[in-house]
């Protein structure tokens, strides 16, 4: 089945060029099936790139998925055309009385900013509190994962001595988890951050399970025991060139960044990176949609306390 998104969304042409089945709203309305309603709170400055990356991962599934994009009202994005935001994004006031099967809260380049100093922190807390009753299952990614662990469970972040950037080996800690259906025992994933959380702090919270970690990169994936929240610190949605573009950006800013680990062949930025995380990323998002959203969400969401 296809993913259902607005016809004129920039990601549509990209996905169709990759032979991904994108359904028009007209055709979707004439199918006798309820799509999964997924809300994406996109906090990344690269809105269109992030939209395309996430939609690509959510599309390769037999489920019909209707995706909507959410922006914060308390902060105006600086790196995307306002017409794009007005056309394709909604605000919390417009969705607060609705219910969703799934939600994704993305990362944001806020590693060195205290949570309470983030311009939209109060609004984000309101949205995360709302999600407890209005979203069946929420996936928090990178900075969104750390913000979620802090808000829901009081787990403090720790600043790293230097930015963690590269493709790292991660170990599956709970092979029986449906999230890892089809995974190898070890999987590779891009990490790009200057913060982390202590494994001991995660394990000290009875409501949480550490289900994947990395010897080099630390905590990778955490879930709540009731499966209503997933916290993913890596970027399995990243494209081949995402880390390269981040590296080039930091070079141009004069930050003298280290070459991303295990990414460029021979650690040579002039060489094309080899992707070794694509299948794990596809499996993770598909398994999340299937086992933690579709299989357990109520058919009639309206007015249902999840």
TrEMBL record:
SUPFAM superfamilies: Class I glutamine amidotransferase-like. Keywords: Acyltransferase, Amino-acid biosynthesis, Cytoplasm, Methionine biosynthesis, Transferase. The keyword DNA-binding does not apply. GO terms for molecular function: homoserine O-succinyltransferase activity. The keyword Nucleotide-binding does not apply. It catalyses: L-homoserine + acetyl-CoA = O-acetyl-L-homoserine + CoA. Pathway: Amino-acid biosynthesis; L-methionine biosynthesis via de novo pathway; O-acetyl-L-homoserine from L-homoserine: step 1/1. It is found in: Cytoplasm. Substrate binds at residues 163, 192, 249. Pfam families: HTS. The record marks 192 as: Important for substrate specificity. The record marks 111 as: Important for acyl-CoA specificity. The active site is at residues 142, 235, 237. Its EC number is 2.3.1.31. It is an enzyme of class 2 (transferase). PANTHER family: HOMOSERINE O-SUCCINYLTRANSFERASE. Transfers an acetyl group from acetyl-CoA to L-homoserine, forming acetyl-L-homoserine. NCBIfam families: metA. Belongs to the MetA family. This is Homoserine O-acetyltransferase. It comes from Brotonthovivens ammoniilytica.
């Amino acid at each position: 089945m296809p993913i259902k998104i607005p016809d004129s969304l920039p990601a549509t042409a990209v996905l169709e060029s990759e032979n991904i089945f994108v359904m028009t709203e007209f055709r979707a309305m004439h199918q006798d099936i309820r799509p999964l309603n997924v809300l994406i709170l996109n906090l990344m400055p690269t809105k269109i790139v992030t939209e395309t990356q996430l939609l690509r991962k959510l599309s390769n599934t037999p489920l019909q998925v209707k995706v909507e994009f959410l922006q914060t009202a308390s902060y105006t994005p600086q790196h995307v055309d306002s017409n794009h935001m007005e056309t394709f994004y909604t605000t919390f006031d417009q969705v607060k009385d609705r219910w969703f099967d799934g939600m994704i809260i993305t990362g944001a380049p806020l590693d060195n900013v205290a949570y309470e100093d983030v311009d939209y922190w109060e609004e984000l807390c309101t949205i995360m509190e709302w999600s407890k009753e209005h979203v069946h299952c929420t996936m928090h990614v990178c900075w969104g994962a750390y913000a979620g662990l802090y808000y829901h469970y009081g787990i403090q972040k720790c600043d790293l001595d230097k930015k963690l950037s590269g493709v790292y080996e991660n170990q599956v800690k709970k092979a029986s988890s449906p999230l890892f259906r089809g995974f190898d025992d070890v999987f590779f994933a891009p990490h790009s951050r200057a913060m982390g959380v202590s494994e001991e702090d995660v394990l000290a919270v009875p409501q949480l399970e550490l289900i994947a970690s990395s010897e080099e990169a630390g905590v990778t994936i955490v879930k709540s025991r009731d499966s209503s929240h997933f916290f993913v610190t890596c970027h399995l949605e990243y494209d081949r060139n995402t880390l390269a573009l981040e590296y080039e950006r930091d070079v141009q800013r004069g930050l003298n960044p280290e070459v991303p680990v295990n990414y460029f062949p021979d650690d040579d930025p002039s060489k094309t990176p080899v992707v070794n995380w694509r299948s794990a990323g596809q499996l993770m998002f598909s398994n999340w949609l299937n086992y933690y959203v579709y299989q357990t969400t109520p058919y009639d969401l309206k007015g249902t306390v999840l």
